Amino acid sequence: MLRLERIREDIAALGRQAAATRQARQDALAIAQRWLAEVPGAEELRGHVQPLLGSTDPWSGAVPVTDRPLNVPIACPPESLTGAVLIGVDGSQIFPDRHALALYYLLQVGALIFRYDGSAPTPRTFEWLRYEESDLFDERGYLIGAETLGMERMVKEMEVLADLVAASSPDAQGPVIGLFDGPLLWPYADRVPDAGSALRTYMGAMRRVQRGGGHPVGYVDRPGGRPLLDLLWASRLRPDEFGERIGESPLHHLTDEDLMVSFLPPGACTPWFTRPTPTNDRHAQEGQEIWFCYVHMGSGEHPTIARIEIPAWATIDGRAPAVAHAALLHQAAALNGYPYVLARAHEEALVTTQDKAALEQAIQREILASGHLALPSEKAQQKALLGRR
Amino acid sequence: MSGSDQTITIGNVLRADIRGFVIASRIPAPEVPTFGAFVRAPIQQETAELIGLVYDIRLQDDPFLRNLAANVVPDAPEYAEIIRDQRENRAVPVEISVVAIGYRYREAESYLYGYPPQPPMVLHQITVCSPEEVRRITASVDFLRTLLDNRDLPADELIPTVLQQTAPDDGADRQAYLLSAGRYLAQHLGRDPVRLEKILRRIDGG
Questions:
Q1: Which helix (H) or strand (E) element contains residue B104?
Q2: What pLDDT is recorded for position A354?
Q3: Residue B170 has what pLDDT?
Q4: Residues A297, A257: contact at Cβ < 8 Å?
Q5: What is the pLDDT of residue B1?
Q6: Which residues on chain A are in Cβ contact (under 8 Å) with B11?
Q7: Which residues does B163 contact at the CB level (< 8 Å), separation at least 6?
Q8: Residues of chain A whose pLDDT is less than 70?
Q9: For residue B92, how many other CB atoms are within 10 A of its CB?
Q10: A315, A214, A245: which is closest to A273 by C-alpha?
Q11: Residue A60 Cα to chain centre, angstroms
Q12: Is B53 helix (H, G, I), strand (E, B) or coil?
């Protein structure tokens, strides 16, 4: 039972801090807006940040990769969607639980193949039940954690996308866009030990998408991070100030999303950027360097900013980038700023509490049929009773 | 059970007793059973099956659909694919109420009408009965027995609907079947002539 009266002063302090932070954010936003309005051209910026790219201190701000001006939003080009194919992919999981009646984990990937030809989309799901010791425990004998599971899930999602692109492309009358719920840039390099094998599999799947004629697009809803703000701060420093002051940005209260809400009109996007991170270098070695832009997916009443990630090769591949932009806006208009195909892929992937209960009942029946009785731990049973409150 | 039987996977059992059960599930719209559909569910460690009639279907709140409905006008051509996805693919959250009308042991050919000896203890899926099964179940109008006394059902609508669905197509056989059902109802509803007449009119009127 939570005794609110004991933390009442902390709650009041949290409220005061929220008000102070809000004011600081508004002040920082005014600065960021001015800096964006005054930002130099793209080519000049690339030259200006070169010393940061070769520095021993890692800098992961955004670097413009085209010559479009940063402070001019790009409207969505008029683009026919007829014949285009949009494949949305998402995944979910049941984590291994040593208190459950059996030790296992489950991965499920859901997809929706959406063809702009008037036909009903095709939902698909794919499932993996893991129960071998080699899957459940790492080299040190510890039960695998959420990061390892998330990594395997991300690889499976890309593999599924590659398979569906290969199946859909031969009959497609337009570009085939594979929409991934989350970043395309591999996030596990520093988070999971021995992630190299998984990364190689992931890159292989991304190459299969490319060879299959598809264009993978990562969709990051409500993006965190501030690579563009870091670029704006760098643009305000002299190169001889980089060493001392690059980490002293006054915009740390903000994210790029905050700036984009005030900068991008609905439907518009920024130019493409890249990030000079070790992971993106690794991607580039495989021919899959990831570029990103921001898109305003919502409306005036419901501003919604998404970060779109795409391999560099896909940005110059015919109509695909423009079709992807137009398709995302069309999909998002149906669902208040979130692409319909991703919402449905998520729905197809979702493992509900009822699904989990049915799975564990099935497992229990199989174990019972083999002459053994499997029960959750006493702790789990007690938690289940409390959980009904 | 044939390979083409339509099964409904249970999401959640809301209530189950010997009079019937109420389950929650998510089913694609084309597969939602109809009012008066016959279903069966395993009971007694799968040594028998309960036979029931669907008497209520309720759509549960669907926030996804509410969100979509705010932006997508029905039959809007620019959303043709989305509308088809909603109508043909997407599982809708439904509550299905089933009343028990009888049961059958797996080794037996004949059906026993009335409440089963036990409710479904573990309910994972129910199966919509095939037309052949329905013919066998309704060969005797005794299957109406549990419906007549159950005040929790819309029995006065359910009985005519089921009889219209289960009566043979052939004119003479159809007449004989409905006449037999009418006599059964008259025998059991003799003390409630108003209700009897209402039901008979509905059977007659179609």
A1: strand B91-105
A2: 78
A3: 81
A4: no
A5: 36
A6: 352, 354
A7: B177, B178, B181, B203
A8: 384-385, 387-389
A9: 18
A10: A315
A11: 17
A12: strand
What is the rounded CA–CA span in Å between residue A33 and residue A229? 10
Residue closest to A271 by CA, chosen among A310, A224, A320 = A310
User: For residue B4, is pLDDT > 60?
Assistant: no
How far is Cα A4 from Cα A183, in angstroms, rounded to an integer?
39
The amino acid that residue B85 corresponds to is D
Alpha-carbon gap, residue B177 to B67, rounded angstroms? 48
CA atoms within 13 A on the CB side of B126: 35
Between B68, B80, B84, which is nearest A335 by CB?
Answer: B68
pLDDT at residue A389, rounded to an integer: 56
Rounded Cα distance between A345 and B64, Å, is 13
From residue A160, give the alpha-carbon distance in Å to each of A91, A155, A211, A309, A321. 10, 9, 14, 18, 22
DSSP 8-state secondary structure symbol assigned to residue B124: S
CA distance A128 to A117: 32
- A chain contacts of residue B88, beta-carbon cutoff 8 Å: 120
Cα–Cα dist B134/B38, whole Å = 7
d(CA A195, CA A189): 6
Task: Count the neighbouring beta carbons within 10 Å of the beta carbon of residue A105.
Answer: 22
Interface predicted TM-score of the whole assembly (ipTM), two decimals = 0.87
Optimal mutation site among A329, A331, A340, interface B, most CBs of chain B within 10 A: A340
H or E element that contains B91: strand B91-105
Residue whose C-alpha is closest to residue B51's, from B59, B60, B42: B42
Q: Assign A236 to helix, strand or coil.
A: helix
| Contact flag B64-A347 (C-beta cutoff 8 Å) | yes
Inspect the interface and report whether the beta carbons of B84 and A120 lie closer than 8 Å.
yes
Please provide the DSSP assignment of A159-198 as one string. Answer: HHHHHHHHHHGGG-SS-EEEEEEB-SS---TTTSTT-HHH
Cα A342 from Cα A324, distance rounded (Å): 13
